[in-house]
Amino acid sequence: MPAGVVAMLALAALLNYVDRGNLATAAPVLQDELALSSSQIGLLLSAFFWAYAPSQLLAGWLVHRYDIRLVLGAGVLLWSAATTLTGLANGFVTLLLLRLLLGLGESVTFPSWALILARHSAEGDRGRLNGLVSSGQGFGPMIGTLFGGLAIAHFGWRAMFVGIGVITCLWLVPWFRVSRGGVLKPTAQEHSRSVTYGEILRQRAFWGSALGQFFMNIGFYFVISWMPSFLVKAGGFTVSHMAMIGAAIYAIYAIATVIVGDVSDRWMRRGGSPTLVRKTFFVIAGLGTAVCTGACAFVVPHDAVWLLGVTAVFFGFSTPMIFAVSSTLAGPRASGRWTGAQNLSGQIAGIIAPFATGVLLDLTGTYAAAFAMAAITAVAATVAWGVVIPKIAPVKWVDKVNEPAPDSNALPATESVL
User: Fold this and answer.
1) What distance lies between CA 8 and its chain's CA centroid?
2) 105 in a domain, yes or no?
3) Which of 46, 208, 267, 305 is the most buried (most CB within 10 A)?
């Protein structure tokens, strides 16, 4: 795998999370200027996922059907335009429509990245590579919160959106340079019959992966969507201080993601099986997140800041595992579609968590119930990853529709998903 491609995928993931998270950074100021309620802010934060989640299935099909470098490039162009135009919005409806457009553009990112790594990386490198690429999920919010918050404090939220949108568009220039020359062409395996979504949905391992990502993302998207407002409105921090605290927490998450991905691969090269290694990190991630977010419900906001920093470490334990496991299970023939369908499940959490938090906040006046929600769903994620996935090994896809699949990851007709 060319290092330049890995670097550009990591940068795409970073920009993906800068652009989807910039509304959360601007929310404390934007909410007051446009006279929006907490429920309306929650609705706007979740609206991104209304388009992003169902578009995962389309994106999974597109990356297998067309030149993957063009599919990803078109998505980046679309979402950068949506970000730029957000800086010109004057009301709730316009913001809502632009968040939908942003979600549509960003939907191609994860299926593209997963298929590229499934095609061009070995099992013993996937934790490290997924850790490097997915570190953008932490560095993106870190940069967006820090520099976005400072930009808002000095130039206003509109200038922040326009500037970030233009910067995102510039990514296209180096991307088409490093991906030229057929370095991302399909493997020989992909010339076999295409794997359908129906075949994927019959795999028990798919349901374990999908449910695990869904439940963990409830807490993840609660934190990433509402932490700026929590720090400013509950914690009493200024926007500038919020930016620095949020950036530090996201940096912890990103660094943990890179380290955990590398450590997991080293363990496997020393003899650890994919099932033992990946599931160990999953279980630690789920239980650690449950303890930390649950504790946040019972402490004052200033103390919760420290707990959120530790929570970021546990998020970093799960992130590189999620797509390393899906690449292993699905293989090059199905990785784009598998990741699209799995990510659909994970992003439904993005629809639920921000809006549910806004409603809970309006009803109770505190964030305690939202932290409790994150803790409970983290436990559910642990069960999905640890129990529902039977083993982490490649699914043996068949070449004929009527040929049975001799694989223990398949879900028998008499066996419950759970």
Assistant:
1) 17
2) yes
3) 208
Check which CATH number belongs to the domain holding 364 and give it: 1.20.1250.20
Structural domain count, the chain? 1
Give the tokens for residue 86.
Answer: 């957000």
Q: How far is CA 75 from CA 102, 108, 116, 174, 335, in A?
A: 9, 6, 16, 15, 19
CA 79 to chain centre: 16
DSSP string, 278-347: HHHHHHHHHHHHHHHHHHHTTS-HHHHHHHHHHHHHHHHHHHHHHHHHHHHHHHHHHHHHHHHHHHHHHH
Q: What is the pLDDT of residues 345-370, one digit of tens each?
A: 888 887 888 888 888 888 888 899 99
| DSSP string of 44-89, one letter each residue | HHHHHHHHHHHHHHHHHHHHHHS-HHHHHHHHHHHHHHHHHHHTT-
Which string of DSSP letters, residue by residue, matches 275-296? HHHHHHHHHHHHHHHHHHHHHH
Confidence at residue 331, expressed as pLDDT on a 0 to 100 scale = 83
In a domain, 15, yes or no: yes
Give residue 43's domain range. 3-184+196-388
Task: Note the pTM of the prediction, 2 decimals.
Answer: 0.76
Question: Mean pLDDT over all residues of the chain?
Answer: 84
With beta carbons less than 8 A apart as the criterion, state whether 283 and 385 touch. Answer: yes
Residue 101: predicted pLDDT: 94
pLDDT per position as a tens digit, 195-206 = 888 999 999 999
Encode pLDDT of 4-54 as tens digits: 888 888 889 889 988 887 888 888 788 877 877 777 887 887 788 888 888
Beta carbons of 315 and 254 less than 8 angstroms apart:
no
C-alpha span between 138 and 356 (Å, rounded): 23
In-domain check, residue 408? no
Does residue 151 contact residue 167 with C-beta atoms inside 8 Å? no
Of 328, 324, 336, 327, which is closest to residue 57 (Cα–Cα)?
Answer: 336
Contacts for 94 with CB less than 8 Å, ≥ 6 apart: none
Residue 173 confidence (pLDDT): 93
Give the largest CA-CA distance in the chain: 64
CA 81, CA 380: separation in Å to the nearest integer? 37
| Tokens (6 digits) for 170 | 């510039």
